UniProtKB/TrEMBL annotation:
It comes from Streptomyces hainanensis. It is found in: Cell membrane. Gene3D superfamilies: P-loop containing nucleotide triphosphate hydrolases (3.40.50.300). Residues 6-238 form the ABC transporter domain. This is ABC-type xenobiotic transporter. One of its GO terms (cellular component) is plasma membrane. InterPro entries: AAA+_ATPase (IPR003593), ABC_transporter-like_ATP-bd (IPR003439), ABC_transporter-like_CS (IPR017871), ABC_transporter_ATP-binding (IPR050763), P-loop_NTPase (IPR027417). The keyword Cell membrane applies. One of its GO terms (biological process) is response to antibiotic. Pfam families: ABC_tran.
Length: 321
């Protein structure tokens, strides 16, 4: 196991009487993507602002380490190790994309030559060469986000905080951004991401924490979180009534659907449980005509954990055969 890039213990923050963070523990391993999910106002941005030294943690907070530095003692070292993009975009719309990049290079004290080299390389990498000489105010939302990340990378940060990086982007730009994020991590960068999109956390994150009421309601891989909510099952459908009856006899724990010739077996969707169902069918000498695995998705987890009962979670299904 690698060293953690970010650790926080008992993170607290209040505004007046309002407690926003009430003892949040976080550990993000180097070179991984960590997603912080939570309903509006849960405290995601507040967490990012604390971890990036933009605001101070509450006095009762435990220690915070970012990039190997104690945030309370060496905030400058933390700042040198990180990049932040998202809701606090650094892009200046009045100057061109290239000028924004060169300005960033100046801020990082790169020589003129090195600044031009890094700028050219990053503009090419983020597909912004054609737009480089145009004012950033003329860029589309996706281009602005790409420029924002490119500007962050000028300082070669090892840890990047992305606060809602794809909010408002169209599907193509969103997928483009996901590719960029994956490439960053392939280069060894650690990404701390906040998002409103469960699908985004599911796609990208190695680990996901769900923030609710100022506390982490659950943390784990997407698969681990999905197993927290009930409702997973395997559904078998038959066209031959005799095969259906044999299967129903073999699978005693199955709920029967005599009219539809379908059986439903509670399952967490794991390979082990799926194999057990198939083994029992094999032993009985029957073959199902259709097998589908129903697993709860992150939406179900999110609704269950954040008790937003107004929305009814749906049951997606994944056809195995
Ligand atoms: N400077 C401030 N003064 C007072 N209250 C604040 C301040 N900043 C944030 N809050 C409150 O803290 C709570 C958490 O805000 P925060 O922006 O961290 O939530 P969030 O999870 O990022 O929400 P969203 O998804 O809507 O961006 C909110 O209730 C917000 O009103």
């Amino acid at each position: 196991m690698t060293d953690p890039a970010i650790t926080a213990n008992g993170l607290r923050k209040s505004y007046g009487d309002k407690t926003v963070l009430d003892g949040v523990d976080l550990a993000v391993q180097e070179g991984t993507i960590f997603a912080l999910l939570g309903p509006n106002g849960a405290g995601k941005t507040t967490t990012v602002q604390i971890l990036t030294t933009l605001i101070s943690p509450g006095p009762a907070s435990g220690p915070i380490r970012v990039g190997g530095h104690d945030l309370a003692i060496h905030p400058q070292s933390v700042r040198a190790a990180i990049g932040v993009t998202g809701q606090f975009s650094a892009v200046d719309g009045l100057i061109t994309g290239e000028e924004n990049m060169l300005l960033m290079a100046d801020l990082h004290h790169l020589s003129k030559r090195e600044g031009r080299r890094v700028t050219a390389e990053l503009l090419a990498r983020f597909d912004l060469v054609d737009a480089a000489r145009k004012p950033a105010s003329t860029y589309s939302g996706g281009m602005k986000r790409r420029l924002d990340i490119a500007m962050t990378l000028v300082g070669d940060p090892r840890i990047i905080f992305l606060d809602e990086p794809t909010t408002g982007l169209d599907p193509r730009s969103r997928h483009n951004m996901w590719r960029i994020i994956r490439e960053l991590v392939a280069d060894g960068v650690t990404v701390f991401l906040t998002t409103q999109y469960l699908e985004e956390a599911d796609e990208l994150a190695d680990r996901i924490a769900v923030l609710n009421d100022g506390r982490i309601a659950a943390e784990g891989t997407a698969e681990e979180l999905k197993r927290l909510v009930p409702g997973g099952h395997v559904r078998l459908r038959f066209t031959d009534p005799a095969a259906y009856r044999s299967a129903a006899t073999a699978l005693t724990d199955a709920a029967r659907g005599d009219e539809s010739l379908a059986l439903q077996i509670p399952s967490d969707g794991s390979q082990r449980e799926l194999r057990s169902v198939l083994d029992r069918l094999d032993t009985a000498g029957v073959e199902a005509d259709e097998l589908t695995v129903h697993t709860p998705d992150l939406d179900d987890v999110f609704f269950a954990l954040t008790s937003t009962t107004a929305d009814i979670p749906h049951q997606p299904e994944e056809t195995v055969r």
